Every structure is written in structure tokens, then in C-alpha cells.
Amino acid sequence: MTVEKTTIKQDSGSLIVKGISYVSITFFALVCLFPFALMISSSFMNEQEIVREGYKLLPKEVSFKAYSMLLGNSTQLVDAYQVTIFITVVGTVLGLFMMSMAGFVLNRKDFKYRNFFSFLIYFTTLFSGGLIPTYILMVKHLHLKDSLFAMILPGVVGAWSIFLMRNFMKAIPDSLYESATIDGAGDFRIYWRIFIPLAVPSLATIGLFSALGFWNEWYNGMLYMDSPDKFPLQYFLQRMVNQTNLGALINSGAVINTADLPTQSIKMATAVLATGPIILLYPFVQRYFVTGLTIGAVKG
């Protein structure tokens, strides 16, 4: 009887702990989802209602003026999406390939100059050439003015990501490399057939950060892009928001009805269009944020 009572107490205690955990997680999830829900609902609000009552979850009147203004330039919007998708995919793939190879090489104990190159890479985190030398390099020497690669190359490699890959490499047992070398595998074969399959969690993490960086790219687009059909999504949406500025429209001589100008709701609408697609990518990458794929790789 004593054992049964103890078991019942333990079961009831675990149920209480689970209940508290579920309630806490649910509350935290709702807190995280609230800004997104407010952003979506506010993008459909009428401009007068926003001015009178501010942003809220349940608008009294649903308005599509913000989206109609943005989607009125549907051709340019599609071009901006295509440019952003292109630089995100190409930049992320190139970045993962180069940074994973750099981490692989810097972790190799038989590489004589690994400490020297590690210092050079670390040095870039402390000092940079600055905007003017970078602009001269991209435009005058690399001739990338109005080229999509002007938005790709600056973000391909990151020092922090290289060191993250190198540190992950340290968790892979040396026995795998030794056994592969004995079997006659070369360096690239070891990298491609052993490191890449085991590095999926780190590649997914770095790939997501890199993809977010390219998806949110606008500054390099502003600096180097001249053709409107090559504007990235973020820069295109920024220009659309600026076009709704009342003072700029009046100074340009435009005749407008201030009540019909969605200056506030269009900001939320641009956020929805900009963040929606990249949010859908996260569930496919989140499951790889788990470490320990090397457990059991070496036995004995």
C-alpha cells in the first residue's frame, strides 16, 4: 500500500509539472504570435480607424487599400520577389559550400597554416575596409555595378559562421578521417562523403541565418542597383512606403485625398509581404536544429 501511495503521489506530481509546463509554453507561444497577428490584422485596417484608435487585432472595417496599392505594381513586385529568391538561393548555397570547406580545412591538424588563416579571418571581425573602399572594389575593379552578384558576394562568407563550422568539426571523431584515409579516400571525398552528412545541423543553422540575411538585403541593392527590375524585395517595398509619404506627394504636385492614402496600414502590409515567405521556410529547417548526429558513428 505504501508503494502504491508513493507511485500515485509521483504520478500526480508529474501531471502537475506537465500541466504547468504546457500552460507556460502555450502562454509563451501566444505572446510570440501576438505581434504577427497584430501585423496581419493591422494591414487590413482602414486608415481613419488606425489614426483614431491605433492598431488592434479586430478591426471594425476591413480595407484592402494597402494591398491594392502594393499589388498595383504587380509586375515590379514579381520581379522583386524573383531577384530576392535568386540571391537568397544562390548566396546561401555558395556560402554553405565555401564556409563548410573553410571550417573543414581549418580544423585539419595536418594543415600547417591553419592558425595563420584563422587569425586573418578573425581579424575581419575587428576591422573592415569601410564603405568607400568596398564600393570602389565592387564597381571599379570587379565591375559589378547593376549586377545581382553585387548583392551576393558581400554576404557569401561570414567569419562567425566559419568558426562555427570549425568548432562543429571538432566534435567529429578523428577515427572517421583516419579510417577513410586508410581506405584511400582523398580530402574532398572525406569532406563530401563524411563531413557533409554529419554536419546537417550546423549547415541548417548557418543556412537559415544566411538565407535571412539575403532575404532582408536592401542596402547593397540601394548602392549598386540602377535598374528597377533588379531591385530586391526589401528595397522595392521601402520605395513603395516612401511613395506614400504625404509631404513627398504634395511636393511633387500630386492631387490626393488624404483619407484614401494608407500611410500606416501599408507599413504592415509590406511587413506581411516581406516576412511571410521566409517564415514558411523555418518549419522545414527547425527539425535539423538538433545536435548529436555523430553519436554512434564510431563504435568500439
UniProtKB/TrEMBL annotation:
Subcellular localization(s) per the UniProt record: Cell membrane
CDD domains membership: TM_PBP2 (cd06261)
Domain (ABC transmembrane type-1): residue spans on this chain: 81-285
Membrane topology value: Multi-pass membrane protein
Gene3D superfamilies: MetI-like (1.10.3720.10)
Key words of the record: Cell membrane, Membrane, Transmembrane, Transmembrane helix, Transport
Keyword Transmembrane helix annotated: yes
Signal sequence range: none
Record family assignment: Belongs to the binding-protein-dependent transport system permease family.
UniProt name for this protein: Sugar ABC transporter permease
Organism: Paenibacillus jilunlii
Lineage of the species this protein comes from: Bacteria, Bacillati, Bacillota, Bacilli, Bacillales
